[in-house]
Amino acid sequence: MTEVKFRGDLGANSDSLFKALSDGTRRALLEYLVREGEQNVVALTAVAGVSQPMVSRHMGKLKRAGLVTARRTGRETWYAARTKGLGPVVQWMAIYGALWSQRFTPMEHAGD
Amino acid sequence: MTEVKFRGDLGANSDSLFKALSDGTRRALLEYLVREGEQNVVALTAVAGVSQPMVSRHMGKLKRAGLVTARRTGRETWYAARTKGLGPVVQWMAIYGALWSQRFTPMEHAGD
DNA sequence: AATTTTCATAATCATCTGGTTATGAATTGG
DNA sequence: CCAATTCATAACCAGATGATTATGAAAATT
C-alpha cells in the first residue's frame, strides 16, 4: 500500500539507499571508508562508537543499499565505499535539487 | 552517546534532513511540491495515499528539516518546497560523492 | 591440538516511526 | 447562528530499528 501514483522514484532500491543514509552512525562509517579506504570490521568497530555486531549489521545495510562492497579474505571482511552507489541519490538531487538550487557545481576541491 | 569522534557532519539538523528524506511518502510529497508549487493540505492529501493527519505530520517533519515552508492563511496551510533546504545534503554529496566519483554531472546519464 | 582472532547471527529490549481513527479549534459559508 | 471545511493534535497500535550481550563458525596463531 501507500501507493503514491505520482512518485518519481528511481527504482525500488533507492528507498533502501535513502534509508541507509538516514542513520548517522552509518553515514559516519561510510565517510570513514571514503576517507581512509578499505577497512576491516575491527578497524571500523574501533572508530564507530558501537559494538562489533552493530557494525556488522550497519555494514550489511550499506552493502544491500549498494554503498559498500565486501571482500572476504580469510577471517577478515574488508569493506570499501562503492563508487556508483550514490548514483540514484545524485540523480534525485539533480532532478529535485538542481531544479531549484543551481548551486549544484560540486566543486573540484573536496577538502580544500 | 553513540559518539563517533571522526564524524564530519554538517550541523545537527543535517541528521533531521537525511531522516526526513528517508521516507518515500515524504519524498513524494516534496517532489510534488517542487513540481506543482505551493499546495494546501487537502491537495496534498488527495495525492499522498495516506490520511490527512499523516500528511500533516509528514509536512511537520519536512518543515522542521527545513525542506518546506508553511504559510497559513485563514484555515488553510500552504506548503511550499524550500529552496535552500537541501543545501547540507548537496554539500555532503559534494564532499563524499565528488571524492570518489570524480564529478557528478547529474543530468547526462539518467539510466546509469 | 588448543587458543585466539575475526566476524556474523540470534535473542532481547526499548524506542522510534508510520499508520490509523477520533477530536477539537478555527475559519468560512449559508 | 449553525453547518461545513480545513487542519493539527491526541490516543493508540503494529512493525521497524538501533542497541546490547551471547554464541558459534571459521581462520590464524601458538
Automatic annotation (TrEMBL), chains A, B:
<keyword id="KW-0805">Transcription regulation</keyword>
<dbReference type="InterPro" id="IPR011991">
    <property type="entry name" value="ArsR-like_HTH"/>
</dbReference>
<feature type="domain" description="HTH arsR-type">
    <location>
        <begin position="6"/>
        <end position="101"/>
    </location>
</feature>
<dbReference type="InterPro" id="IPR036390">
    <property type="entry name" value="WH_DNA-bd_sf"/>
</dbReference>
<dbReference type="GO" id="GO:0003700">
    <property type="term" value="F:DNA-binding transcription factor activity"/>
</dbReference>
<protein>
    <submittedName>
        <fullName>DNA-binding transcriptional ArsR family regulator</fullName>
    </submittedName>
</protein>
<dbReference type="InterPro" id="IPR051081">
    <property type="entry name" value="HTH_MetalResp_TranReg"/>
</dbReference>
<keyword id="KW-0238">DNA-binding</keyword>
<dbReference type="GO" id="GO:0003677">
    <property type="term" value="F:DNA binding"/>
</dbReference>
<dbReference type="InterPro" id="IPR036388">
    <property type="entry name" value="WH-like_DNA-bd_sf"/>
</dbReference>
<keyword id="KW-0804">Transcription</keyword>
<dbReference type="Pfam" id="PF12840">
    <property type="entry name" value="HTH_20"/>
</dbReference>
<dbReference type="InterPro" id="IPR001845">
    <property type="entry name" value="HTH_ArsR_DNA-bd_dom"/>
</dbReference>
